[in-house]
Amino acid sequence: MLETVYKHLETLQKQASELPPQQQAILTKTLEKLSNSLQEIAASSLFESARYNEAKLVEIEKNNRLLERTVAQQASQIRQLQEQLAKQISQLRRDNQGLIKSEAKLQALLRNSPDLISIVGSDGRVRYHSGALQRLVGYNLEERIGNFHGELIHPDDLLAWQAYFGNLLEAPAIAGPIEYRIRHADGYWLYIESIGNSLVSDSSVQGVIINSRQIGERKQAEMAVRESELHYRVMSQITSDFAYSFKALPDGKFACEWATEAFERCAGLVPEELESFGWWNSEIVHPDDREILIKQLECCSFSRTGANEYRIINQKGEVRWLRDYWQVVWDKTAERVVRLWGACQEITDRKQVELKLQLVNQVLQAQIASAPLAINCTSNDGNTVVWNRAAENFFGWTAAEVLGKPLPNIPRGQKQDYYALLKSASNGQPQNGLEVSLLKKDGSSIDVWLWTAPVREPGGQTVGSINIFSDLSERKRIEEERQKLAAMNDIEEPFWARYVSPPKTKTKNGER
Please, which residues have CB within 8 angstroms of residue 113's CB and are 6 or more apart in sequence? Predict the structure, then answer.
């Protein structure tokens, strides 16, 4: 405001020069007084303004310092926020790169996975197929997207698939596997196993995820196993052999786990009955053979496999012979046998034949041992296996001296011919009453009659020959004496007596 007054005074001073001198002097003097008064007012205002400005300046400085501290704090916070933002941006970039890599891996997995991953909407239409579609069923992705998933399912399996899919829609969760057939692009049917996971309520999926894989080889294996099981059941039903499994308990006892069907026909018991009272201590085992089974159990602690023969008594009271092939399972952690597996073969008929053969062999051995003629048997390799008492007396060698060795009574130079003779007998060409000369232990020779015949095992295979010797020396001596006597008679009788018949005389009855 003072500045405005000063401007007006300056204007008046300029205008005073135009007035008359007297009036100009009065106005000039008045203006000077007014100017002095204004100066005094201005000085007073400046002083008060200076005091006011000084207080304001102090307050401003305080506010400025407060503002500086506030600005510093805000700047520090801004720097911290900038650093955090930079870290977040860096982490976001790393996460984005990792997400890109993960997505690339996921896409690679989906492209190269042998399993087919599909997303089927609640309406049954396919919304997504992984790259395995082409490899698995031969269709392009464009051919199947938007089509119904059930179009390719075998008619016989379609109802099962519809029920499975309906359950997924009603109760969203991961369902169990389902097997069905699907038509390949080339027209044939493939066996597929699928597992569904309903994510209809998930906004990112809004459908059912179906994970499918081809199980043709497994199906073939399962059919082969079923066929094998069928063959096994048939064989188990028609054969007399049976298998079993026993579980070894910690207290040393054995409990039957199972036995095949043939056990019931052989023993007259079902496996459940066997399990109720056990095997080893049951009355089914013949009393004379229970010790064999007890020893078998004792061997289980150190032997892995074994075989033995024993008798059982079935429910009809019949005695049956079994040949038992068994194997134990050893647990290294428990350091004990935990299971016993076995396979039993019924050998009753064979045992009966063996017992009959044994009896026949005993009778035959007794007959050979007590026979008055010298008898020996040789194996195919020429060693002696039988040498009876008559042979000991006849040739002089004891059985202990010749058994398991070549015949000692063959003269030198004749062994090849004699063994050829025995070999021909083993080949089915027996000799009856052949005259041969053999040796005795004292070195003398003896003429004998020889009879040979092949010895065959039950299977019909020739295992050697039996040789029977009869002394020909006495007969030869008698023949020589007879020949000598006949020669002497020829000398004493005149030669013409051979050609002249003596005269005939009449008897009392008139006969000549």
Answer: 130, 131, 132
Angstrom CA distances, 397 to 373, 386, 401, 408, stand at 15, 12, 6, 8
- CA-to-CA distance for 31 and 14, rounded, in angstroms? 11
pLDDT over 90 at 156, yes or no: yes
Beta pairing class for 207-214 and 242-248 = unpaired
The sign one gets for the Cα dihedral 222, 225, 231, 237 is: negative
Tell me how many degrees the CA angle 324-327-328 measures, rounded to the nearest 5: 135
Q: What pLDDT digit, counting tens, does each position of 459-475 carry?
A: 778 888 888 888 887 67
Angle at which helices 21-112 and 2-16 pack, to 10 degrees? 140
Per the DSSP assignment, residues forming a β-bridge with 195 are: 177, 211
The DSSP secondary-structure symbol of 406 reads B
Which pairing describes strands 431-439 and 336-346: parallel, antiparallel, or unpaired?
unpaired
Largest separation between any pair of C-alpha atoms in the chain: 254
326-379 pLDDT tens trace: 888 888 888 888 888 888 888 888 888 888 877 877 887 888 888 888 898 888
Intra-chain end-to-end CA distance of the chain, in Å: 221
Q: Which two tokens stand for residue 353?
A: 């034949």
pTM over 0.85: no
464: left (phi over 0), alpha (psi -120 to 50) or beta: left
State the Cα angle at 153 between 129 and 183, rounded to 5°: 80
Whether 397 contacts 441, CB under 8 Å? yes
For residues 177 and 169, give the distance between their C-alpha atoms in angstroms, rounded to a whole number: 16
Report the alpha-carbon distance of residue 298 to residue 334 in Å, rounded: 17
**C-beta neighbour count of 178 within 10 angstroms:** 18
231: CB partners within 8 A, 6+ apart: none
